Amino acid sequence: MREILCSVKGAQRDYASLRKEGIEDLLQECLIHWFFMKEQYRSESGASERTFLNRVTRNKIADLIRRRAANKRRVSYESESLDAMDDDEKMISTKERILMVEEQTTIKITAADLPEAMSKATANLSFRQKQICRYLSEGMSQVKVGDVMNIPRTTLQDEIKRIREVFRKVGLEEYLR
User: Fold this and answer.
1) What per-residue confidence (pLDDT) applies to 102?
2) Which is nearest to 56 in space by CA: 75, 71, 42, 70?
3) Secondary structure class of 102 (helix, strand, coil)
4) What is the spatial distance between Cα 22 and Cα 77, in angstroms, rounded to a whole number?
5) Whole-number Å distance between alpha carbons of 37 and 4
6) Cα separation of 3 and 119, whole Å?
7) Spatial separation of the C-alpha atoms in residues 148 and 169, rounded to whole Å
């Protein structure tokens, strides 16, 4: 019994997925598993009953670790009706924030503000997006830019959409035509 307890404690210490479980719960799972597996013990195999118990315990712990890791990758969602009325003002404000649509405001950029707006927009671009802007401003076609940068056409078009969105947020939408 002490060996099983040491094995469980060691596994709990070594694996983060088992740390949230109580030591008694893990020990109970291992002992229940042993209870059902003990009938499979064969003395003619050459292993002692104690060795078999340790092997069964290690296998059960490994199985628990695998199951916990698989459950960690699963995402569970609790759905809540948006039509349901809550007395809690905090919940209502959260729902309102979720349902709010970002208001698209158009900012008018003057010629004097253009350099500042351009530097603000390009600061929010990745290196690859900046390269795409440079090639397109030099007059290259999208096909040529894709060939030069060795990226698929659909990926390039997605990057251009992201660039347009960044420019739109800064108010440079009219300069993208």
Assistant:
1) 43
2) 42
3) coil
4) 25
5) 15
6) 66
7) 28
The answer to whether the beta carbons of residues 169 and 106 sit under 8 Å apart is no
**CATH code of domain 114-176:** 1.10.10
Residue of 135, 122, 136 whose CA lies nearest to 166: 122
Domain boundaries, the chain: 2-73, 114-176
**Does pLDDT of 146 surpass 80?**
yes
- Check: CB of residue 37 under 8 Å from CB of residue 57: no
Is it the case that residue 144 has pLDDT exceeding 90? yes
DSSP 45: G
SS3 state of residue 84: coil
Burial class (CB in 10 A: 0-12, 13-18, 19+), 149: middle
Task: Dig out the tokens for 32 from the structure.
Answer: 């229940």
Of how many residues is the chain composed? 177
Q: What is the pTM of this model?
A: 0.39
Cα separation, 161 vs 126, in Å, equals 13
Q: What is the pLDDT of residues 48-66, one digit of tens each?
A: 888 888 888 888 888 888 8
R_g of the chain computed on alpha carbons: 31
Q: What is the mean pLDDT of the chain?
A: 76
pLDDT tens-place string over residues 58-115: 888 888 888 877 766 555 444 455 555 554 555 555 555 555 544 444 456 667 777 8
DSSP 110: P
